[in-house]
C-alpha cells in the first residue's frame, strides 16, 4: 500500500517516456517503511518505484515530509534507469531530497544524461542530483549537471551532486557510487556531502552558459561509449549562448 504522490504516477510503474509535469506535487505523509510499501514520498514524475524513466520533465514544485525528488521521490531494490530527464522546479523535503531522485534503498540506480536547475531545500541529506544513496544501493551518475541551490542546516549532509553516500567500503565495498562527467557550479559546497569521490567537476556558472559546455556534454557520450556504457537512447544536448544546456 502507498500514498506516494507523483505528477504522472504515484506508486509503481515499469516504464515512463516523454512525460511532462508542471503542477504542484505534495505529500503529507509522516512515516515511511524501509521496503517497497512506501508512505509519503513525492516526485515530480513518480512518487516511488519505477524501472525506467526516459525523456521526462518536471516544472512543478515538489513538497514532502519525507523523500522528495524532482523526477522520483524513492526507489526500493532492483533496477532504475533515469535517462534524458530534467527538473527545473523547487524540491522541498525535510530530508532525503534531490533534484532528480530523493532516496534509494538497495538495487542498481543509473542516472544518465540528465540535469537539475531547481532549488533543493530541507534539513539534511539533500543533493542536487540525488539526496541519499543507501548502503545496499549501487548508483552511477554519468554526464549530468546541477545548478540549483542546495539549502539545509547540516552542511556535512548536503552535496551539489549527492547529499549522503553510504556503502562502498567494508561489507558494502561493491555497493558503490560512481560519478563520471558530473558538473556543479557552487564551490562553497561539496559535490558529495559526506565524502570525497572522483568524477565531479566544478565549473563557474558563466562557463556552463558557454556553447563549449554543450559540446563537452555531447563529446562525453562518445567517451563513455568507449567505456562500455550503452548510450543508445541518450539525447544530444542543445544550447543557446548565455543559457544552460538542455535536452
Chart the SSEs and their pairings.
Layout: E1 5-6, E2 9-17, E3 20-21, E4 25-27, E5 42-43, E6 46-54, E7 57-58, E8 62-64, E9 68-69, E10 72-76, E11 79-83, E12 86-87, E13 91-93, E14 95-98, E15 101-105, E16 107-112, E17 115-116, E18 120-121, E19 124-127, E20 130-133, E21 137-146, E22 150-151, E23 158-159, E24 162-165, E25 177-184, E26 200-202, H1 205-208, H2 211-226
Parallel strand pairs: 1-5, 2-6, 3-7, 4-8, 5-9, 6-10, 6-11, 7-12, 8-13, 9-14, 10-15, 11-16, 12-17, 13-18, 14-19, 15-20, 16-21, 17-21, 18-22, 19-23, 20-24, 21-25, 25-26
Could you explain the architecture of this structure?
With 247 residues, this protein is mainly beta. 8% of the residues lie in helices and 43% in strands. It contains 2 helices and 26 strands. The strands form 3 sheets. It has a 15-stranded parallel sheet that branches. Strands 1-5-9-14-19-23 form a 6-stranded parallel sheet, with no helix packed on it. Strands 4-8-13-18-22 form a 5-stranded parallel sheet, with no helix packed on it. It starts with a strand and ends in a 21-residue tail after the last helix.
Amino acid at each position: 500500500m502507498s500514498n506516494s504522490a507523483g505528477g504522472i504516477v504515484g506508486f509503481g510503474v515499469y516504464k515512463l517516456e516523454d512525460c511532462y509535469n508542471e503542477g504542484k506535487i505534495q505529500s503529507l505523509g509522516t512515516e515511511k517503511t524501509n521496503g517497497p510499501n512506501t508512505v509519503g514520498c513525492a516526485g515530480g514524475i513518480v512518487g516511488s518505484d519505477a524501472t525506467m524513466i526516459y525523456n521526462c520533465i518536471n516544472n512543478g514544485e515538489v513538497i514532502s515530509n519525507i523523500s522528495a525528488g524532482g523526477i522520483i521521490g524513492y526507489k526500493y531494490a532492483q533496477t532504475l534507469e533515469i535517462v534524458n530527464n530534467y527538473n527545473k522546479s523547487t524540491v522541498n523535503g525535510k530530508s532525503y531530497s534531490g533534484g532528480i531522485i530523493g532516496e534509494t534503498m538497495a538495487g542498481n540506480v543509473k542516472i544518465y544524461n540528465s540535469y537539475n536547475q531547481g532549488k533543493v531545500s530541507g534539513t539534511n541529506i539533500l543533493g542536487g542530483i540525488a539526496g541519499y544513496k543507501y548502503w545496499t544501493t549501487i548508483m552511477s551518475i554519468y554526464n549530468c549537471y546541477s545548478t540549483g541551490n542546495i539549502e539545509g542546516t547540516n552542511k556535512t549532509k548536503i552535496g551539489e551532486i549527492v547529499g549522503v553516500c553510504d556503502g562502498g567500503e567494508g561489507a558494502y565495498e561493491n555497493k558503490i557510487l560512481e560519478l563520471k562527467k558530473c558538473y556543479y557550479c557552487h564551490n562553497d559546497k561539496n559535490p558529495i556531502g559526506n565524502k570525497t569521490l572522483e568524477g565531479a567537476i566544478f565549473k563557474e556558472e558563466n562557463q556552463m552558459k558557454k556553447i563549449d559546455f554543450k559540446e563537452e556534454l555531447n563529446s562525453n557520450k562518445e567517451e563513455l561509449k568507449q567505456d562500455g556504457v550503452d548510450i543508445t537512447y541518450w539525447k544530444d544536448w542543445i544550447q543557446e549562448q548565455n543559457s544552460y544546456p538542455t535536452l
